[in-house]
């Protein structure tokens, strides 16, 4: 049996638009819910409150779960990206899975010429963008995450047509926390402590232990009564 991917632990509640990591209990608000908002905004009234802007460490850990091809650096001044092309129609890639969970914040359907890239023409793409960061260096700048999927490209140079590209990156602190940016939301996270439910066998042993303790206490009281009577 194949080992489940770490990303399999993430699930979306379609009603609340909250993505939950079932292993840790950490919750992420779907990024489409904060389009048009800035990192400096007040999020206390959203979905019960308790949200904070995702830190660099939290975002790099999220990327490690979905895109393990490289080790994602939590340093806010480091930009990283991964880019790959697969034959269109080969199945659901992790970039698509990520976008379905966190929401597509931007889509482009029009065909356009792309220069300086390993492809020439694009028929459009789906993307999700979000802004995050805890500005540890105090320069007043934040970071952005980008995930693109379902991009279909024609590449006449190598004779391969109708390809799908996956692109995901963490961009170093180039953005103002007070700014709102087209096609992007704010990455909000909420940490909820998980409480493990005891196994039935554990509960049974606990019950037997309590019963034994009660019996022992009653027997002890009976002895004391007989001595003093």
From TrEMBL:
<feature type="domain" description="Ice-binding protein C-terminal">
    <location>
        <begin position="197"/>
        <end position="219"/>
    </location>
</feature>
<protein>
    <submittedName>
        <fullName>PEP-CTERM sorting domain-containing protein</fullName>
    </submittedName>
</protein>
<dbReference type="Pfam" id="PF07589">
    <property type="entry name" value="PEP-CTERM"/>
</dbReference>
<dbReference type="InterPro" id="IPR013424">
    <property type="entry name" value="Ice-binding_C"/>
</dbReference>
């Amino acid at each position: 049996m194949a080992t489940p991917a770490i990303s399999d632990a993430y699930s979306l509640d379609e009603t609340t638009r909250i993505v939950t990591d079932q292993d840790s209990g950490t919750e992420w608000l779907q990024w489409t819910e904060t389009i048009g908002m800035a990192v400096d905004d007040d999020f206390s009234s959203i979905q019960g409150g308790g949200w904070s802007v995702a830190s660099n460490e939290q975002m790099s850990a999220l990327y490690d779960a979905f895109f393990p091809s490289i080790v994602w650096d939590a340093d806010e001044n480091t930009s990283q990206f991964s880019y790959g092309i697969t034959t269109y129609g080969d199945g659901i890639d992790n970039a698509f899975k990520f976008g379905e969970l966190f929401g597509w914040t931007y889509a482009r359907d029009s065909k356009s010429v792309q220069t300086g890239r390993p492809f020439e023409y694009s028929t459009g793409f789906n993307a999700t963008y979000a802004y995050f960061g805890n500005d540890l260096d105090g320069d007043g700048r934040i970071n952005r995450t980008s995930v693109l999927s379902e991009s279909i490209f024609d590449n006449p140079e190598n004779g391969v047509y109708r390809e799908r590209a996956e692109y995901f990156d963490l961009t170093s602190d180039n953005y103002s926390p007070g700014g709102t940016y087209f096609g992007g939301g704010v990455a909000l996270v909420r940490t909820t402590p998980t409480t493990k439910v005891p196994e039935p066998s554990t509960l049974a042993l606990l019950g037997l232990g309590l019963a034994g303790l009660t019996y022992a206490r009653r027997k002890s009281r009976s002895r004391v009564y007989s001595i003093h009577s």
